[in-house]
Amino acid sequence: MSLRIAVLLKSVPDPKLWHRVTIDPVTRTLRKEGIPRVISPLDRNALEAAASLKEKHGGEVTVICMGSSGAKENLREALALGADRAVFLSGGTFGGADSLATARALSAALQKLGIPDLIFCGAVSYYGSTGQVGPQVAQMLGINHFSSARKFVYDGNMLTVESVTDGGVLVARGRLPLLLTVLREANKPRGLRLSETVKARRKEILEWSPADLPVSGAQLGLEGSGTRMIDLLPPTPGKDAEIIEGEPEVVAREILRKISVWTCGTGG
Amino acid sequence: MDFRFNEEQEMLRKAAREFAEEVLAPRAEEIEENDEIPTEIFKEMAERDFFAVTVPEEYGGLGLGHVARMIILEEISRVSAAVAMMLQVFHLGIHPLITFGSEEQKQKYLPDLAAGKILATVAITEATGGSDPTGIQTTARPDGDGYILNGRKVFITGAKVADIAVILAKMNDDPGVFSAFIAEKGMQGYRSGRTEVKMGLKGSDTGDIILEDCRIPKENLLGNPGAGLKISLNAVGEVGRAGMTGCAMGLITACIEASVSFAGQRVLGGKPISKLQGIQWKLAEMFADLEASRLMGYRAAALKDAGQPCDAEFATSKYFSCEAAVRVAKLACDIHGAYGYMKEYPVQRYLRDAHLMIPSAGTSDIMKLVMARTVMKRYAV
Amino acid sequence: MIAQNNVWVYAQETRGGIAGVTLELLGEGRRLADRLSVKLTAVLCGEKVAGLTGCLFAAGADTVILVENPSLHYYNAACFGHCLEGLARRYHPQIFLFGATQQGKDLAAVTAARLNAGLTAHCTAFELDDGGRLRQMVPAFGGRCVFVSTGFPQMATVAPGVFQRPDLDWERRGEVVREQFTGDGNTAVKVLNFLPSPRAEKGLADAAVIVAAGAGVGGSEGYALVEELAALLNGVMGATRPAVDEGWALEEQMIGQSGCNVHPKLYIAVGVSGDQLHLSGVKDPDVFIAINKDRQANIFRHAHYGVIADFKLIIPRLIDLLKSRTHI
What we know:
The structure holds three protein chains of three kinds. Chain A has helices spanning about 40-55, 70-80, 100-115, 135-140, 195-200, 220-225, 250-260; strands at about 5-10, 10-15, 20-25, 30, 35-40, 60-65, 85-90, 120, 145-155, 160-165, 170-175, 180, 205-210, 225-235, 240-245. Chain A is of the alpha/beta class. The longest helix of chain A is centred in the first third of the chain and has 17 residues, at about 40-55. Chain B folds into three domains: about 5-115, Acyl-CoA dehydrogenase/oxidase, N-terminal domain (Butyryl-Coa Dehydrogenase, subunit A, domain 1, Orthogonal Bundle), CATH 1.10.540.10; about 120-225, Beta Barrel (Butyryl-CoA Dehydrogenase, subunit A, domain 2); about 230-380, Up-down Bundle (Butyryl-CoA Dehydrogenase, subunit A, domain 3), CATH 1.20.140. In chain B, the strands form two sheets. In chain B, strands 1, 2, 3, 4, 5, 6, 7 and 8 form an eight-stranded mixed sheet that branches. A two-stranded antiparallel sheet of chain B has the order 9-10. The two termini of chain B are about 30 Å apart. Chain C has eight helices and 18 strands. In chain C, strands 7-11-6-1-4-5-12 form a seven-stranded parallel sheet, with helices on both faces. A five-stranded parallel sheet of chain C has the order 15-14-16-17-18. A three-stranded antiparallel sheet of chain C has the order 8-9-10, with no helix packed on it. Chain C starts with 6 loop residues before the first strand and ends with a helix. The chains are: A alpha/beta, B alpha+beta, C alpha/beta. Chains in contact: A-B, A-C, B-C. The interface between A and C is large, with 79 and 97 residues.
């Protein structure tokens, strides 16, 4: 049974370098120059889920990403990590989208491709993490979804899924088509292999503008967003910590003095 | 002249960096402490096709060339020069088969080498000859339709783990004639001997290969009889020197990163020492050394990929980058002050690692002889 | 009959009771409703949940919209989303708040899509501007983003522990409005089982003493050291996202914007850089101590006391002192 699988991908500034991002107090914008872009970590798990499934059961994996031009290299990476082709939504009026407008763009792209059998995305992205886009895309396409999936088993037309929910894990079975948002524990994403990076060169990246999608431009980007950011407040300067100086032994004793209230009744 | 890397090369770099940061970096300290590289590291490198970079596609490789190879070595060396050194020597062991191997030899060994299923090395150096390979004493005596080899190779990287070794031996019947042979671990009379305990590059396995009446079948003669020196010098000259340059570049980068980080954090007199001119001058010198090493190295590799002569260019890049590695590592230690001597900080390891790069794959003095030959020819009036 | 333009809070039923975050949101919702001079409505869906309405009134709701149906036994987006969409289209709430629990986040997203409404995630504060519009604050990179919705209802999710639980007034009464579930049961998805996770003996959310491990802890060995300290202080271990990503700590131990919000009296952060996503989860400890060998770490701008050193030099000595009780 040949599966048509889609993966929703987000390109984010490398989370390991977020401490370099600052808020410019004058322009009230984020300063993130020079931070390389990576595939949002949980989207790697989503891509791995899709690729493994395809390798086991046959089919095709399409990666879809909406982003600025810098995201294209992440799409090429995705093509080296198990995807067969990529769709890149970029340019003009896609920009400034909140999760609602993003979900609309992605849904429209999926409509244009033909709704796949399975859609995977990361449960949450590492930048502006709302975790909303996946469930919203499912809603817009009129298909069922499972959020925070940690495990799934495919057999024929159905998927048995374990989703992490409040107070425990829900085990449920759903008929395709389905959308899954996946957690880190779902799998161990494969690393980049040179042979795959070579093959990725020849794979297709389709670039679509808003005009290519079956949705009105007013529904996309900043204009189509349901929320708008009206201000970005820089950090309020707090009082800096009082530094405890000295040799480790001295410091440890000083710490103990400060926490003495909570050490009564403790110890070996 | 376009000095930029193209998109594919940047992707290769990303793949190598991902391995270096996610698989290697967490284990770098363990490798240093135990003086051993876990076999999983080789397995991961094999899975990512790092052994296949220079093997032609028809033999199961990727045929990506020597610029690609240098990118990978540079990225790995930035995290662990020891692992980079071993990988570079594995490539070195593969090279003579690609260039001089018979069709049967290529079919037999290259696919497994590309897949990292077997590892190769080159065994030239002996106690009686390293810089001058004609001083070696290992002999090869014709026996039946094969050969019997006797001798001891020293300072061989991968002596213990290598599955095959390209051995340089002198023919017993004519002292001036040298041939190259492919010896396999498991052949009778072939064994690895003592493992050296080194000051640096901890984890890389350096030791002896001993041949005691080791019988080599005739199909394992590599290249033509008497072509041994040509084969050895070609391998070391182009692939060995290129590999060392790649290792040096990565190490220099690591030194600069450590120094920038430390200088930004070390506060003296109310401000970080990175504000001091004295420190900035050192960083500038380190940067110039890195830029020069990279330009020389990648340019030589690009010449090789284009099939052009590159012997002198590799000699120059090897000489420069490896001397620079020691120079930069010392500057990094200087910037750290006494902290640079402490094991808690990485720069002392970089200094210890850098030193072996100078005598490896031809000492700086030998490189200068090669360079001098070219200078006198090219600039003769 | 429910008035239009009320402030709504989605009431989540968990393990037979009302989720704590619902009560917290009712407290905040009460404040907003009073400022806007409208009523506060809680929306409760489930199979047999009528007995829980008293709690919602005690927390400040004026009205509870109650929808009971077997299709609503287990949470499922299709039925619950259909339900909330219908109610919202009927009663036009101006504000609709959800707890950012697993269920809440999912349901809020689905409902917002159904209503073509904007949804702001992980708000930490609300304000009303002069026109009565809801300003929704979300922490970002050390500062805060301010969002507004472009339409109605203005929807937002809030993590547990951000707002204070209100005092419950069990004398309070309100109006229960029963609504019918009009959807068809979702037949494409069948729940097979629910595996409850063991209730945490001592949760982060209630802990008075928390010791948190960050990326600087470097590995499971360092993590174990910090754990030992926590145990000696009768505290609970917390962690930052990098520590969870590296596998030393569990997701449930993560403190921060997308993790737990904590209100400890004593907070010791070891090897934590102090990025805002983590700090936003730590509410006003009485004593906040940070140990980090990076002088530039952001945490030193927020902690009360800082130690610029490798934790491996400090923590073992602290542990020894605690064990031998030679401290003052």
